[in-house]
Amino acid sequence: MNMKRRAAVAIGALVAPVLAVSLPASTASAHGWVTLPTSRQQQCADGVVDCGQIKYEPQSVEGPKGLRSCSGGHAEYAELDDDSKSWKVTPVGTTATFTWHNTARHATANWQYFIGGQKIAEFDGHNQQPAADVSQQVNFGGFTGRQKVLAVWNIADTANAFYSCVDVNIGGGSGGGTGGGDGGGGTCTAPAWDATRVYHGGDTVSYGGHTWRAKWWVTGDKPGTTGEWGVWEDLGAC
């Protein structure tokens, strides 16, 4: 028995270095995506658009910094680059509030927003760990009509970034508005979401250019950040 034990230990010692060498290097521990206005990967996760693997992991569109693709260079997420798919377009005003939901918070260099390769906004992350939900007011400048906004989260201590594309119709409504956080008003008839209010099942609010219905009692949970099985049901753009 002692001979067998010694042999097993010896084999384990030989195999361990091989396994260590063969395991892939880990990427950044940060993960996140834009939930409002509803991004392409959020629509995939919600089943609004028929997508592939990305519907299971909307937070994982990670690639080298400097890319200008919705898929972050991942072939398995190629659906995100397909402009011909039936992506839901959010009507917005001259500005809109973009909300990132971060499932793993990592030190941030900055957030950037692009339309057609042109940078329209940048927000400094100060190399600090962000909150679980980060909202930023983006001004679209002179852009109007239907546009694809590429949102980029640049990580501070790795060479990687996270990518998220959002389809908007600038001037097609006020789903973001110059007034800031709620994104209501314009064609939205439900009252704007209030973080301090208690909502009950069946109550409706407007937020991010969408109408939301509470499935049960809730207070403080922001619409669009609780996921498909969360408290808020997305009733669509308003």
Q: What does it look like?
A:
The chain is mostly beta strands and 238 residues long. It has a domain of 151 residues: Coagulation Factor XIII, Chain A, domain 1, CATH 2.70.50. Helices cover 12% and strands 37% of the residues. It has 2 helices and 14 strands; from the N terminus they run H-E-H-E-E-E-E-E-E-E-E-E-E-E-E-E. The strands form 4 sheets. Strands 2, 3, 5, 6, 8 and 9 form a 6-stranded mixed beta sheet that branches. A hairpin with a 4-residue loop joins strand 8 and strand 9. The longest helix is centred in the N-terminal third of the chain and has 21 residues. The protein is globular and about 45 Å long. InterPro entries: CBM5/12 (IPR003610), CBM_sf_5/12 (IPR036573), Cellulose/chitin-bd_N (IPR004302), GlcNAc_Chitin_IntDeg (IPR051024), Ig_E-set (IPR014756). GO terms for molecular function: carbohydrate binding; hydrolase activity, hydrolyzing O-glycosyl compounds. Keywords: Hydrolase, Signal.
